[in-house]
Amino acid sequence: MASAPSSLCQVCVVLFLASSLGRCSVEQMTWKQDAVIKNAIFHRDLLFTMTDRLSAIDCGRRCSQTENCVSFTFTRHSSSRGACRGHSSSLTSQTPSSTEPGTEAYSFVGKKVWLDPAEQQLQSDWVRKKCATDLDCPADNATCFRNMVCLCLPGYYYSHKGDNCVPECSPADLQTGFMDYPSGLLNSHVLHYVPSGVSLLHCQRYCTRDAVCRAITFVRSSGMCMTHHVTPLDADDVHVCWFPDMTPHFYSQLTCA
Ligand SMILES: *[C@@H]1O[C@H](CO)[C@@H](O)[C@H](O)[C@H]1NC(C)=O
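# 2-acetamido-2-deoxy-beta-D-glucopyranose complex -> structure
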């Protein structure tokens, strides 16, 4: 099993879009799960309690919409529901008021405004989660990619609507966000090729501005960019070559509505 590069190791960090700031920019809040605080409930500086939250991400979204909210706990009650408690102070220095199994604590890390929708993060509980087997990735047509990280089976599109992976996506439903697959290279069916010097953002833009583009191959070290109008599911001769070790290449596919 290959070890994950640090960019994939951020299992403790929940990223999501807090709000859309117009068509071409998004605000992204970053929360970090506290590795030490487990199953603890706090009463001090409690701003709100909500018992109908879908996930920790949903809870974080609520906290980010609440003035002064800097930390929260999420207690999972069922596979799709849980209790969310927002606080106006850090939880790390506090003594818990009670314990409740299944509770995770999160604190605010930072806020970032992206100026391009190609940087869209996926709002999902399972995407990019660390995993050991496919069972850790509970969504249709999802896989534990390289026994490391939950992604869609290569060739499938991540569907924002279903929070699962679908084999087809109509051109009207293609989104500007991508799902990245480390150490992959699709070296045929190239629409547009730039040998070096391209930034990831520009490579993604070549794709999102081209109505028939579906995926890119990008090499971080050199800035090589290829865009593709096919995915590995479209034809028998479309293959992503997966390198055994971590390389700076990656295959990245557009997501779907
Ligand atoms: C999963 O993939 C199969 C086979 O391609 C497809 O029939 C099924 O509809 C997919 N699931 C979803 C939710 O699209």
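# post-check
Residues 140-141, 162, 164, 166-167 surround 2-acetamido-2-deoxy-beta-D-glucopyranose (CB under 6 Å).
The helical segments are 56-64, 200-208.
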